[in-house]
């Protein structure tokens, strides 16, 4: 299990809002998830820190916990 630091979670949330693509759509589209993961890792400043699977898992955890920001749609 991967441990996310609070600043990493905030970076993921920030990229999520900027990307403006619902979590389900990101998780279902491998290319979109890989691009999103690269953006999250770039924002954190550590290339390859998280895999697409780890990012997808954290997106789901945050959504189920009600902590994932709502998109503007």
Question: Can you describe what's shown?
Answer:
With 73 residues, this protein is mostly helical. It has a domain at 27-67. Helix content is 66%, strand content 0%. The protein contains four helices and no strands. The protein has helices at 6-19, 23-28, 30-44, 52-64. The chain is globular. The mean pLDDT is 95.
Instruction: Name the poorly predicted regions.
Output: none
Task: Report the count of strand segments.
Answer: 0
The number of helical runs is: 4
So what's the overall shape? Answer: globular
Question: Element order, helices and strands?
Answer: HHHH
Question: What's the end-to-end separation, in Å?
Answer: 32 Å
CA radius of gyration is: 11 Å
The helix content is 55-70%
Instruction: State mean pLDDT (0 to 100 scale).
Output: 95
Secondary-structure blueprint of this entry?
Layout: H1 6-19, H2 23-28, H3 30-44, H4 52-64
Helix pairs in contact: 1-3
Features:
73 residues, mainly alpha
Can you describe this structure in just a few lines?
This protein is mostly helical.
């Amino acid at each position: 299990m991967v441990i996310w630091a609070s600043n990493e979670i905030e970076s993921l949330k920030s990229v999520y809002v900027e990307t403006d693509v619902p979590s389900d759509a990101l998780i279902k589209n491998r290319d979109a998830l890989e691009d999103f993961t690269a953006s999250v890792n770039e924002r954190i400043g550590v290339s390859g820190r998280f895999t697409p699977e780890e990012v997808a898992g954290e997106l789901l955890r945050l959504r189920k916990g009600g902590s994932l920001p709502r998109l503007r749609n």
